[in-house]
Amino acid sequence: MREPRHLLRHFNGIKVWFGRADDPGTRKTFDAYLARWLANDRRSLEEHEDDEHLTVEELVDRFQAWADAYYVKDGEPTREASIIEFACKPLTMLYGTESAATFGPQALRAVREDMIRRKWSRKNINRQVGRVRRVFKWAVERELVPPSISHALACVAPLKRGRTEAKERKPVAPIAWADVEAVLPCVSNEVRAIELG
């Protein structure tokens, strides 16, 4: 008599046994595991045990790998992934070796202060702090950090004009009419009509 076949699959190098192939429940068990594995960014579900020791730097690395694949348009990477990487530099420099599960509002404020010391503009800092929050929101969605972290970080108010040492960008002034006239001979009739309209 032949031995019954078993459903055994490898997920990230880890063998997972689902049961006898002739058992109707085996396919359901496999399908449920596969769905959870895909939702877990193709990481074995057993890897969740290490998440409580996840450092900020490891979290940023995971998020960056996801962002590099996500922020793509027409097969080409957009600028957003590299902007996120830039926004996270102060975060990893200050808190890279700290536990991601204990990062909170005071730490985010310290990261923001570092951005001010770097002479970033107020509006840019607010945008970059929003990107740092996005990293932790992404982590909450994947159960890498407690949900309370994302809620707590949302309580850090944006920098207000005139209430911070962060510099303000100089407003963009309109260009001189002489510069417009200088390029008119080089543009199409349609553009020229708009300019002279």
Structure commentary:
By secondary structure, the protein is mostly helical. The protein folds into 2 domains: 6-50; 54-153, DNA polymerase, domain 1 (Orthogonal Bundle). The protein has 9 helices and 4 strands; from the N terminus they run E-E-H-H-E-E-H-H-H-H-H-H-H. It has helices at residues 24-39, 56-70, 80-87, 89-95, 105-117, 122-141, 147-153, 177-183, 189-196; strands at 6-11, 14-20, 72-73, 76-77. The strands form 2 sheets. The chain has a two-stranded antiparallel sheet. Strands 3-4 form a two-stranded antiparallel ribbon. Strand 3 (72-73) and strand 4 form a beta hairpin. Helix 4 packs across helix 5 (105-117), helix 5 packs antiparallel against helix 6 and helix 6 packs antiparallel against helix 7 (147-153). The longest helix has 20 residues, at 122-141. The chain is flat, with a radius of gyration of 25 Å.
